[in-house]
Structure prediction request, 692 residues.
Amino acid sequence: MSIPAYDILETDMAVLLDNRLETILHILDTLAMSALIVDGTGKIAAANSAALSMFRYTLEDLAGADVAEILSSDPSLFPAPPNPSAINGEDLCGLRPQETHVESFCTTRNGEVFVAMVSIIPLPADDYSVIVIREISAQGKLGLPVGTTKLIGALRDKMKQIELINELSGMVNSSLSIGTIFRIMMSEIRKMITYDRGSILLYNEDDRNLVIFALDTDMETVLKKGIKAPLDSTSAGWVIKNNRPWINGDLAVAMRFTSDQKLLDEGIRSTVSIPLFQDRILGVFNLDSKEPCRYTEKDLRILLPVAKHISIALENALLFEEISREKKEWEKTFDAITDMVWIQGGRQHVIRANKTLLQKAGLSAFHVMGKSCNELLKRLGITRSECICSNTVSSKQPAFAEMKEAGGNIFHFWSYPLTDDDGRLYAIVHYLKDVTAQKRLEHQLVRADKLASLGTLVAGIAHEINNPLGIIAGYSEALIERARDEALLAMKEFEDFPEYLETINGEMFRCKEILKSLLEFARPHGGTFRELDVNELIKEVILLVNHKAVRLKHHIELRLNRDLPKITADPGSLRQLFMNIIINSMYYTHEGGSILIETGVDDNCGCNPSAGLITIVIADTGEGIPPHLLPRVFDPFFTTKPVGEGTGLGLSICHKIAEEHGGTIDVESEIGKGSRFIIKLPAKVHDKNSRC
Prediction:
């Protein structure tokens, strides 16, 4: 028979849990039964109103008194007890496996003596016993009446319920693991109600179904954890929809819900299902039995308060699981950021840092805790007199600063305040990004734009100036020839003319050389691209500059990779590139210094890993380039040479040639230790549209 438990009311178990002993006494008062609560030493801990009336004591008089003062032994009936609180040789107040019923003489406060039937009921989880006293003086030595026995049995069941609820309450408060709570809970329930399978089904509101969340059974079953069940054709679904318990008396006789056939197929005959509700429907708690008509409304009275605590535990566990999942997602996101991020607490000490920062700073998550912002920056090589945190703390507004490390890298540093609902600052988020490559790219783009504009301008100017300079050069040469006339040389006013004319002619040809350089810089190179060996080309250039190296007592060292792949390039342009850099290195290297030329292969090119790059490094032991000048070395007309010794176009032309070959050129330098020019060229068929 399947019945919905429409009239079952939840007991006030939550109240019972607050003060179980007082509740027991109150129940016995309601039943007009005198009762004492005695501790393990035989001392009276509490008494109900009926007992106080029976013995004519006040609670203050009895509290702490020895139970032997009011319950005595009759030698003709009982042997002498081993201690004052014993009757019939058995401890009235200790923890006992089952209740005991004995007859005893009782003494009231005014000395009256009467015979009573004394029932000793131990409390399983505490060192207390309940002593129920029923006067039988007028009845003689009678056994315990049947009605009283039933009442005591009901009291015993009620105390077991209280113990179960107390156990569940402790578990809910001490654990957030629903699995742990479920296992312990089922072992406690089994002491009161038999079952073959216990389960918790979670309600999935989005999919409108139930999912087996926890299972306790020794049965072979296909209904395992994670299996889904529909709402519309199951008794558990009916419980979800109506938020009421349901009992299946015997599925073999009456089956209202078709999908419950799966239960019967596994030998289940009777079930009880109770909704789990905590501000919202969470799921269903089920007990299944192979025995027909196993569950009654009496079982529901026990299970309803149990389900209430399961609901609390389940809600806590689900909330904890959601918080844990969100925490893990946040941590993964935090650590996935490739820039350096850390959070400082209210005292401006680090409370969390992402993996990137820990790796860069060389710290563990434990050792970074408690460090200040400036300490972290120092470990990263950034020295700053004042941290921008102070601005964020005072203004509660984001702050920004651009910083440089000792090696010349550039960082952007942001500081963001975190405030609570009342506007109080409780933490600061710091974000540090290395923008060196970005700055370099921006500078290259600006330089490329300048070069393009400058090239157009220079080509026009050089063309316009070159013709008048040619005419002036012709006339100056003619005047120099005429100035050799002896008649003119004899004139005092003319004696400076030959020197002036020679100076004019020399400066004229210097202007033409500058114009030639400008034109080479401005116009595209029309050289022929062909396959060539860079090593051989470098050797040719060394032959051309070797005489100068010998004169300056410079040592040129070659480390050429024999397995260097050939490239497709304009040999004339590359020859000019290498020669410009080598001569530049000679100029800034002191006498007796050395110049290293090294070739190799770079297989880590991001633009085309299959092709790779060849690298040419030209390093010197010169005076080095100051960090603030490094970004400008490839700018047109920029030079540190004295006036008249350089045009500032040599390295600009080198940069242009490298770009025309689809490559790059960079420089690294350190004051007092020299400079390194790194040239990278693609080891593939030349394509003017390709860029690394």
The chain has five domains: 31-143, 171-324, 339-433, 439-522, 530-682. The two ends are 82 Å apart (CA to CA). The mean pLDDT is 78. DSSP finds 19 helices and 27 strands in the chain.
